[in-house]
Amino acid sequence: MERLERSGRWLRAALARGPLRRRLPALLLAIAVLGSALKDSDLVPDTPLQNKRNPLNVYFVKVAWAWTLWLLLPFITFTTYELGRSKLLYGRTRSALLVLRRLGALLVGTAVWYLCTELFIYIENLTGECSLQGKPSQPGQPPRLYGSKRECQRDSGVWSGFDISGHCFLLSYCAMMILEELAVLEALAIEHSSKLRVVINVLLVSLCSLTMIWVFMFLCTALYFHDFSQKLLGVLIGLAAWYGTYRFWYLKPFSPGLPLPNIPLSSKKYSYSR
Q1: CB-CB contact of 224 with 39 (8 Å)
Q2: Considering only CA atoms, which of 199, 175, 166, 165 is closest in space to residue 76?
């Protein structure tokens, strides 16, 4: 238990504070640019990570939003309620309403994930064409026209379209969203003996570990997959989605709001490390 407490303190200091949130967008852009340069220069060694069936890709990245959603759901619920019911904020009823409001950020994130994914599929279908290798067309019959990548692959064809990197988009968006939500720990007071503190420490360690996986797999995507323009556009869309929500819309009254209210951080009452 003491090890968990120390891990929670260290991770909060390393990941939950402002400097990393401010620097991570530039770091992701740099990884996309430098990773693409190394890939195009054939300087990247062969590793199991270039196989799309590697465990990290199959069991984590392919369901990245599900991992992010199901860990942020209890974290936002517990931290927002505990922060909201303190005497300087709200009572229990309004704290519950504040939790519901803040959970709206997960609904927004789900909408962003779904709409952007559908947009990427649409663009790839719109810009692509199918190549059927080893399958000549029948004499007297015009070649079949394929309207989507799925139809092409159903006939064992290869679809070539502009494939915006969904990995770069989603991993950058998830990583930034997690760091934004961890900011609440800077204003949260929980007693050392509280069971809630243990639960939040477990969620904190899990979310920080997940963020490190997302950044690492973002690096692997930059080194092994997609063209530079596809990766750059993917990460720019991911960062734009983060900025448009947490740096613009969530500042407005009719929004899920930011995880950290306007509370003086110098107040000892709101120190997570109390």
Answers
A1: yes
A2: 199
160 bridge partner residues: 129
Query: Is the predicted pLDDT of residue 17 greater than 70, yes or no?
Result: no
Instruction: Tally the C-alpha atoms within 13 A of residue 68's C-alpha that lie toward its C-beta.
Output: 28
β-strand pairing of 158-160 with 129-131 = antiparallel
Tell me if 259 sits within 8 A of 80, measured CB to CB. Answer: yes
User: What is the distance between the alpha carbons of residues 265 and 184, in angstroms, rounded to a whole number?
Assistant: 11
| Residues that are catalytic | 167, 226
Q: For the segment 56-77, what is each residue's pLDDT rounded down to a tens digit? A: 999 999 999 999 999 999 999 9
The three-state (H, E, C) secondary structure of the chain, written as one string: CHHHHHHHHHHHHHHCCHHHHHHHHHHHHHHHHHHHHHHHCCCCCCCHHHCCCCHHHHHCHHHHHHHHHHHHHHHHHHHHHHHHCCCCCCCHHHHHHHHHHHHHHHHHHHHHHHHHHHHHHHHHHHHCEEECCCCCCCCCCCCCCCCCHHHHHHCCCEEECCCCCHHHHHHHHHHHHHHHHHHHHHHCCCCCCCHHHHHHHHHHHHHHHHHHHHHHHHHHHHHHCCCHHHHHHHHHHHHHHHHHHHCCHHHCCCCCCCCCCCCCCCCHHHCCCC
pTM of the predicted protein model: 0.88
